[in-house]
Write a structure and sequence with these properties.
By secondary structure, this protein is mainly alpha-helical. It has one domain. 63% of the residues lie in helices and 5% in strands. A 3-stranded mixed beta sheet has the order 1-4-5. A two-stranded parallel sheet has the order 2-3. A hairpin with a 4-residue loop joins β4 and β5. α3 packs across α5 and α4 packs across α9. 40% of the residues are buried. The model has no long low-confidence stretch (mean pLDDT 92).
Length: 329
């Protein structure tokens, strides 16, 4: 079955100049218009500015997902074109393309593998690991997996601060430094120009909510599509890529307007099955193939219940909350 799914997705794994430029073109125009309106609205009541910033954050998030496709080399037909566009988007979204794409590729290669966790993932401990950990490790993990901290604090810190230096294995690589520092230079020029035009105070009133909301949204999307109660986590000897793609990734069943804002990342199981499919072809691949519709479907309101899940129970094969853990203990 898994090999047939792989072959089914192949015909969608080709980029289209027309669809790519149309999607990027209207997204960047809507984002620029929203940012311009947000600055213009500062002379009135700030609540109006905040409403505009919410829309701008949605377009920022959509741009980030287009950059995500560029990192996979799937958005445009040629690698150099994806690199060029992805680096441009990376400046706007505080994300160094090459550096982030290398981390993200490891996530694709190891998702659902208990023996290879931590590569571009939300850190997840098993029940036994948590039980055997010392008090300080438990405390740090509880803080880290607290949804208020993870989404409202750690998310913007990751995008605004942590991606300003190459961390981990890329600290010692020339490519990691070039990607991060090159993006940093672009960010200085981009933000510096806006500050020069509008002033620092106005810049902060507009960009703090935009970057904060979009960072929260990006981390939430990559979290929720792998962190659900009956997800797939197995040890190395039982792990296979094909099973992991279909069972450890959900179909995030969002309203159409949210699929638009999130660049169709909700079709995450198909994306993991074949990362070469550009986001603008994911809905078609889903609609055309009943097999791809059998993935774990996660509804919009149901998804909020996953925020408190934190520990993988290898005995029940379930992701559980700290409250569930106390009951087990």
């Amino acid at each position: 079955m898994t090999s047939s799914i792989a072959s089914t997705t192949e015909k969608y794994a080709n980029a289209s100049y027309g669809r790519a430029f149309f999607q990027f073109g209207h997204t960047i125009l809507l984002y620029a218009a929203a940012i311009g309106l947000a600055f213009a609205s500062l002379s009135g009541h700030y609540s109006i500015t905040l409403v505009i910033c919410v829309f701008a954050a949605g377009m920022y998030l959509r741009l980030f997902m287009i950059g995500h496709d560029c990192g996979h080399g799937s958005y445009l037909p040629f690698r150099w074109q994806n690199n060029l566009l992805g680096n441009f988007i990376g400046v706007i979204t505080n994300t160094p393309l090459k550096y982030w794409a290398k981390q993200h590729a490891k996530h694709h290669q190891t998702t659902g593998n208990l023996d290879r966790r931590g590569e571009g993932d939300v850190i997840t401990m098993t029940v036994d690991e948590y039980k055997q950990a010392d008090a300080m490790t438990r405390f740090r993990y509880r803080v880290y997996r607290n949804p208020w901290f993870l989404f409202f604090i750690a998310a913007p810190v990751h995008f605004v601060l942590l991606q300003r230096l190459p961390l981990g294995s890329q600290m010692s690589t020339r490519a990691g430094w070039i990607s991060v520092l090159g993006t940093n230079v672009g960010i200085v020029l981009y933000y510096g120009s806006l500050i020069g035009i509008f002033g620092l105070e106005d810049f902060l009133w507009v960009y703090v909510p935009v970057v904060w909301l979009s960072s929260l949204g990006a981390v939430w999307l990559f979290y929720v599509q792998h962190q659900f109660n009956d997800a797939y986590w197995v040890r190395e000897e039982d792990w296979t890529y094909q099973e992991a793609t279909m069972q450890s990734s959900s179909f995030y069943d969002l309203p159409r307007w949210l699929h638009f804002a999130t660049g169709n990342i909700g079709y995450h199981h198909i994306h993991h099955q074949n990362p070469r499919i550009p986001n603008y072809k994911l809905p078609t691949s889903f609609d055309d193939n009943p097999t791809l519709q059998k993935a774990r479907r996660l509804g919009f309101f149901e998804s909020f219940g996953t925020a408190c899940l934190a520990l993988w129970d290898e005995k029940s094969h379930q992701l559980i909350s700290f409250s569930d853990y106390r009951k087990l203990a």
